[in-house]
Design goal:
By secondary structure, this protein is an all-alpha fold. It has a domain at 30-95. Helices cover 84% and strands 0% of the residues. The chain contains five helices and no strands. Helix 2 packs across helix 3 (30-50) and helix 3 (30-50) runs antiparallel to helix 4.
């Protein structure tokens, strides 16, 4: 591998993509990430259900299920943020 190729790889690693910036923000602000995800999902769900013709008990059941699902997924994703660097190192070793 030439010196220019090595420099290009280093530059790419130094320039964080938008997705990587989001991961770094979520890693440093875990509670905000979980709470914000849950709040955005619930706001979207309530707006959807306002115009839904379903009976009230079906709307409440759907809201509880989606709320619980979102909270669990958000917590699991936040726990996974601690292992992003290990995963990237593994990925690079396998596929680079």
């Amino acid at each position: 591998m030439s010196e220019d190729e090595t420099m290009e790889k280093k530059k790419k690693k130094n320039q964080l993509s938008f997705a990587r910036q989001c991961v770094e923000y979520a890693r440093h602000n875990k509670l905000t990430a979980v709470g914000g995800t849950w709040a955005a999902t619930m706001a979207t769900l309530l707006a959807y259900q306002k115009f839904s013709p379903d009976p009230l008990n079906a709307k409440l059941m759907r809201a509880r299920l989606v709320g619980q699902f979102t909270a669990v997924i958000s917590v699991l994703a936040t726990l996974g943020l601690d292992h992003v660097d290990e995963f990237e190192a593994w990925w690079d070793s396998k596929f680079s």
